[in-house]
Write a structure and sequence with these properties.
The structure holds two protein chains of two kinds. Chain A is mainly α. Chain A has helices at 2-23, 26-57, 69-86, 90-100, 103-107, 113-143, 152-183, 187-200, 212-219, 224-235, 240-269. Chain B is of the alpha/beta class. The chains are: A mainly alpha, B alpha/beta.
Chain lengths: 277, 340
């Protein structure tokens, strides 16, 4: 236990630094809240417009791919609220550090570089949870007809699923950030990732809306576990048993991607070149 | 037979592959399809040993391979070829264990966290290196004493001057009292006072803890003040490795005598000296300089000659500045004399 505490203690310090660092950017904080509110508002009106004629076209049920309007609004709102928690910018920060040669400073510390980044990102996420996610949630719930979680059990499974989303996002961003070692400029990669995750995670449109062949492919990819899995659990689209299986699958992906990210880093770090100085 | 070396480097090489850009629009288009690579030998079969407690100066012109060597020694870069064992570790293979036993300062960048107070960075490093509170307090006191850190411990790093930042970085690198310290240009851009502080501090650390120090520098005063041993590298090859004194003794061919004559009447008599084959250069009003080869004429003879001819008010005999020697080594001219 003592050894564990000793091993973890420096990483907790990084979490603290991540937390403190984000306090330095006040403007980013306020624009963050406003951005999320705008996003939810835009999607609220889009879905309302979509469901207007759809309600007539599909008959009295007024559902599309199993979602009625109230579920859809909850899906979008909760989707954006949890995104404010699990989102991080490890990739951008890493590419900056690699380009600046600052990565050397991380390598001379007796720590795992991967967990250093994760700890920092977690600190930022915990900060955002209190200062961004919860206030946004309150405002969104007041403004829009958002439903409560399907049940207490579903909520209990939803919470670890959101944490899983953080690690999935972190592992993907860490792998993309690691690419900067060999590619130098990964701006295009970061942008492509942004839209791919937006689409494939199910944040933009529920996975159920995709054609069956694409859904089949997506079932074998980790991306849907970032947004879709926690949201399905929240909405009660899955039975408690199915939700537990989904959660386990998500965390299996977490383990796999963390391992892969570690391998990719170990492979890439050997190819590091820092010129000058 | 000397004790086992602390750092042992055998035929260490690092080649970088750089992509050669073609010129012009057509060249740019061809770059899209086919790339030509060029191999740069940043460090080329370098071999040396460093004993515990040594302070070694590592010098060379820009791009000579100094920093690349340091980066391999600190486990940041993986060598292309060769062997390297430092404090019993292969740096890039056992990075996390190895770096606990080294301190590193890169003059061009800081290992402190930019936006937080210096003392917060130190606290974080204490956790990272698992330094006990007792040791931490003791070392901070020493650092405060020699480096005068107290005044800016609560300031964020971004607000520090370069000299202050460098002192903090040195303290940060030594917080865990590592047996080996690597310094890459520790005095770059610093004023004379700050340089002096840092040199004093390094001397003290070396004496007190027998810390082994390898430092790269452009400032030869650093070497003269701190190091008995010097290694010179250029184009990735080690040109000289040995005592600083030997380098000076073998290469200090020329000396110069600077003297001030009593008045302009005396100055008028100087051409008489020139007739004896000495080259006199005017430096200032009534001040002259003679550069001579000490293998050809002894200092005593020269002085006798000068004093016989003119009345001198002041006189100074100087060695050729070490910069000049190093310049000659870089030019490849003097190398044979050292290695011979």
């Amino acid at each position: 236990m003592n050894v564990l505490a000793q091993t973890l203690s420096p990483y907790l310090e990084f979490t603290r630094i991540g937390f403190v660092n984000i306090l330095a950017f006040r403007l980013r904080y306020w624009t963050g809240i406003i951005t999320y509110l705008i996003n939810v508002t835009v999607y609220y009106f889009i879905w309302k417009a979509v469901y207007g004629p759809a309600a007539q076209a599909f008959g009295s049920a007024g559902t599309i791919a199993g979602y009625d309007l109230a579920q859809m609004i909850t899906y979008v709102s909760v989707g954006w609220i949890i995104r404010s928690f699990y989102w991080n910018t490890i990739d951008q920060e890493m590419s900056y550090e690699v380009l600046e040669g600052k990565i050397a400073m991380a390598l001379i510390k007796p720590l795992s570089v991967q967990w250093m980044w994760f700890s920092r990102a977690l600190g930022e996420s915990v900060f955002r949870l209190g200062m961004l996610t919860l206030p946004t949630a309150v405002v969104v719930v007041l403004l829009f007809p958002v439903r409560l979680p399907a049940s207490a059990v579903h909520f209990a499974l939803f919470v670890p699923a959101v944490l899983g989303s953080f690690f999935l996002m972190g592992a993907i961003n860490f792998m993309i950030g690691t690419c900067a070692i060999q590619l130098k400029s990964i701006l295009a990669l970061i942008r492509a990732k942004y839209w791919l995750i937006e689409l494939l995670s199910g944040l933009l449109i529920p996975i159920a809306f995709f054609p069956a062949p694409i859904r089949a492919v997506m079932a074998w990819l980790p991306f849907a576990h970032i947004a879709s899995t926690p949201l399905q659990i929240y909405l009660g689209k899955l039975s408690p048993a199915a939700a537990a299986v989904a959660l386990a699958t998500q965390w299996a992906w977490v383990a796999a991607l963390l391992w892969l990210a570690g391998r990719w880093w170990t492979f890439s770090v050997k190819r590091i070149t820092i010129h000058g100085g | 037979m000397p004790a086992a070396p602390l750092i042992s480097v055998r035929d260490l090489s690092k080649h970088f592959r750089t992509f050669k850009r073609r010129e012009g629009v057509w060249g740019a288009i061809r770059n899209l399809v086919k790339r030509d690579y060029q191999s740069v030998h940043a460090v080329d079969r370098v071999t040396f040993d460093i004993q515990p407690g040594e302070m070694v100066g590592y010098i060379g012109p820009n791009g000579a391979g100094k920093s690349t060597t340091i980066k391999m020694l600190t486990g940041i870069l993986v060598p292309t070829a060769g062997e390297l064992l430092s404090n019993g570790f292969v740096p890039w293979k056992q990075r996390r264990q190895y770096v606990k036993s080294i301190g590193v300062v890169f003059g061009q960048r800081t290992q402190l966290w930019w936006d937080i107070a210096v003392v917060e960075s130190f606290k974080l490093l204490r956790k990272i290196y698992d330094v006990s509170q007792h040791d931490y307090d003791a070392r901070m006191e020493l650092f405060n004493h020699v480096l005068k850190l107290k005044d800016y411990l609560d300031t964020p790093v971004r607000k520090l001057s370069l000299g202050e930042r460098m002192r903090c970085d040195l303290a940060a690198a030594l917080l865990h009292n590592p047996p080996i310290l690597f310094l890459d240009e520790p005095t770059i851009g610093l004023d004379v006072v700050a340089k002096d502080h840092i040199r004093q501090f390094l001397k003290e650390i070396n004496q007190r803890y027998r810390t082994t120090v390898l430092l790269t520098t452009h400032d030869l005063d650093d070497i003269e003040e701190l190091c008995k041993r010097i290694m010179i590298i250029d184009h990735g090859r080690l040109l000289y490795d040995g005592p600083l004194a030997l380098l000076k003794q073998k290469l200090l061919r020329t000396k110069q005598v600077k003297f001030v004559v009593k008045d302009s009447e005396q100055a008028a008599r100087l051409p008489a000296l020139e007739n004896d084959g000495l080259k006199i250069e005017p430096v200032d009003h009534l001040t002259y300089r003679i550069v001579f080869d000490r293998t050809k004429i002894s200092v005593a003879d020269l002085l006798r000659q000068i004093l016989a001819e003119v009345e001198v008010r002041d006189l100074l005999i100087e060695d050729e500045p070490i910069e000049e020697i190093v310049k000659r080594i870089y030019a490849g001219e003097a190398l044979k004399e050292v290695t011979a």
